[in-house]
Amino acid sequence: MAEPDDISLNDKRLKKLERLIRESFRVRENRTPTYVDVSGNLDRVALRQHQIIFGRRGSGKSCLLVYYRHEIAPDEQVHSAYLLADTIKTLDYPDVLLRLLLAIFQGLPGRTFAQRWKARFRKKGDPVREVIAELKELLTLPSAAKLKVTTGSDSRATERAGASAKTNIAGAEVTAEQSAGQSREEVRESDEAKMRTIENRLADYKAVIQDRISESKFDFGTFIIDDFYLIDSEVQPDVIDYVHRLLRDTDLYFKVGTVRHRTRLLKTTPLHVGIQIQQDVDGFNLDQTLEDLDQTGTYLGTMLRELGKQVGIDDVCSTMSDEAEKDLVLLSG
After folding, report:
1. Is residue 18 part of a domain?
2. What is the mean pLDDT of the chain?
């Protein structure tokens, strides 16, 4: 074990360690991050289960998911696709769901040359491409609404196409005003062609996904949704409900990384929509809190030692006093 005076503050290895730690704070999907598996989370995320991974920002959700995608999944013959919710967070519902579905189908394994040749010989199209084209067409449809105004005994109706309308599952929003003994009623009926289409096609989409996974060289597939909490919390239950119904009983499993207190997975009114942890899907937490300083200190110390070994320091914690270690734990909070 190294002594505290074996390493000076100007040691190049400490500079490398500092850079390694800083780089680990910002995970990018196109680069394999440095990951230290302290709690056995890699084994758990590799299970054939739909999963919700909770953790505050900086707890290692993205690091775990991206590292699994690049380093573990390929060795275990597991196909993986990835979507960062930040890219769809500004979209209204149901477009946010359509974009997510598009990412699922675009992320499916491709056909081999032999499979493409065989399909062309039989003059059969590619079902995945057909679904992708359908979803892209749905995304181009404008939102539309019909407005019916009734005042007293007179009534008149107008239609507005292309106007932005906030859509809900019921598809109707009713508001009433009372003034000078007359009633004014507005009934807005949102155009739900998009939702009707994907609901009616759910069984077909499910079959296309399962067929593509089955004919591929992979044992199963995973679809990663990172930073799910960035999606509007009002529609989070609707989004995760459809994705769960779509992928349930298929060999494509979703892995969702999110922040617990900014995530809404279930709503019960007017309909029961969403999922429940441990009943519908597996869920686990990456958070380490300051309620138990010793446990959190041991966890962070293990990570720091492993990172130190990557730059050639046998035991980086031996360069610090006990008080310094406690200060680092508190600063990490």
Report:
1. no
2. 81
